[in-house]
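The following block was generated as part of the benchmark described in Methods. Ligand: pyridoxal-5'-phosphate.
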Amino acid sequence: MTQPENDVLKAAQDHLWLHFTRHSAYQQSEIPTIVRGEGSYVYDIHGKRYLDGLAGLFVVQVGHGRQELAEAAAKQAQELAFFPLWSYAHPKAAELAQRLAAHTPGELNRVFFTTGGGEAVETAWKLAKQYYKLVGKPLKHKVISRQIAYHGTPQGALSITGIPAFKQMFEPLVPGSVRVPNTNHYRADEISGVKGMTPEEYGRWAADRVARAIEMEGPDTVAAVFAEPVQNAGGCFPPPPGYFQRLREICDEYDVLLVSDEVICAFGRLGTMFGGQKFDYVPDIITCAKGMTSGYSPIGAMIAHERLFEPFKGDDTMFAHGYTFGGHPVSAAVALANLDIFEREDLLGHVTKNEPLFKQTLDALRDLPIVGDVRGSGYFWGIELVKDKSTKETFNAEESERLLRGFLSKALFDAGLYCRADDRGDPVIQLSPPLVAGPEEFDEIGSILRNVLTEAWARL
Ligand SMILES: Cc1ncc(COP(=O)(O)O)c(C=O)c1O
């Protein structure tokens, strides 16, 4: 190892505070350090290549190493590096807002920029509260979201998040957030207590739990329902047929805003620009971030239906909310260049065309005794691991710890596949490659997974 490499590794050990990371895991070993990327691959500090099976963190849609995005950033930084959107506009934010509005379904035409996804979620909740105050329904402030769903770390977004282990140490969080069942059809029997429901029946049942929660809380107190098109945490739960249509009906009936949290699902992850388009529903608000710039610069947004903006047109009314770096000119310029690539290379068409092959590659792993379920949509898939396929029995805490943390994550990485072994719900492996990936990358993902999962089973 060269001295500069040593210096970087030591600086990381001595000074970096990693996110959602047990630092104890790196007491005896170096922190994996990624230095560059190209297409669907990244390279570590020692020059070893990895297939980026997670697009960074569901982010790098157009792949790594795109010079034109770097150039768009440099050009904008030279022209106007910074100006805020506090009472002023700049051309790139205006153009990006217009372009996003053209892509959204329905009349979701009003774009409030943030710097990331959690802020977009936080913004959506605050907007819902203030909107209802302005239209004379001041008690409406509560939100409903789904079990195990992740919606971010600011205290409002964390309150909406449905993962108790991430919340407990920060309680008390923002009050008024209520959980309902998610759309994990694989575990529908346990969740609902009803045996053998079809996906449609389960979807109806799960959506109706939202109506029940609204009734229980009091419809005049509930402002919004937050749901991802495909729920990430827990391992890719697509909506059963009819689920979002029923949710839409319920939200309309009770005058509750439907917020589609598309921080992961927007920008082609499912083969459509926005997630609702894949499943044929129009929300009142979309929250998005990650793929908007493919990660070449940070940005997020809350995109609201024009009707929600109406009360803010009053003489002395404003949404008292903002972020210094929200809609940053460099990020906005990069987002526009990123959308150019989407159009020029027909990335949505590419994902839609290749989705069946990706599914087929992962479905082929179902013959392994440890693979309980394979589910997802577009380029966004989860593989649920089980101890017993026939009973769907999952691992106990000790096994899960030993398997996921102790073995799988590292073994997959050592084998050249960066992806995520996640135990926020039942243990799953999550896959979400760059949208430029294709048959060759799928084959590589399939063969690494087969080897490592076979070994994991042998170790159990
Ligand atoms: C659905 C969803 N919402 C919100 C967030 C939070 O986004 P960020 O990490 O950019 O704050 C995430 C992050 O993964 C997410 O997946």
